[in-house]
Sequence to fold (255 residues):
Amino acid sequence: MSDDPSTKRPEQSAERDRGISPDATQIGGAPQSNDGKRSYLYHRYQRSKEFLRNTKSDHWLAVGTWVLVILTWSLVRSDQDAFMAANRAWISPSAMHLNRPLESSSLVDVVVFAQDTGRAPATNVAYRFHEFLVKYIPDGSTMTRPINRPNTTCDGLTPTRGEGAVIYPGKTDSFIESDFSDTPGDRAIVIQARTRQKTMIIDGCIAYRTFDSDHISEFRFMLRDVPGPSCIITGVEKIGCAWHFNSTGTGADAN
Fold:
């Protein structure tokens, strides 16, 4: 091929006239001048900034979406918990009484009055009692330190599946009788309590189900003796007791 300038292609002559070298670096398949390169690189730089900006926006949008999901779930769960707390069963052991005179029995025989203060029945009810003695607490004393010990009657106690009593909501009390065994230790407790050598404490726990979940209500009462016999039989299956059980302020819990 001849190197005579007159033989150059018309396109190359036109490029030379515009100040563009035929051998200039080509970007994107098109010959570029220095100004063209700068314009192209600036355009790519702006595109990169826009891409990064959009990527960051997408990231924070994803984070915000997850935060919104978590907050929504928390609110729904909170509303559900509030609904269950307002409508479930709540068992309240309100009082305890002797079921027979201590003077005529070697066993501790008591009855607990329990009320469902909630809005749903308490099912599969199970219960447990435990009696023990503490240093004698005189009448009128506010001393509770001797009975400041944990109530363990709920340990291992669960509602009876497919069995157990049902306590319905309302103002009527349900009666739960004690189930103390006849052992030398139990008889010794009765003797020391009725002779005022020591003070009798009775711990207890009621386990039940409501809204497909297990719950407990534990209690503690102290037998408050007064001068005279503990109880007097007034008729057939009728009894009047002067000795009462008082709440101790300790050993009670519920969930």
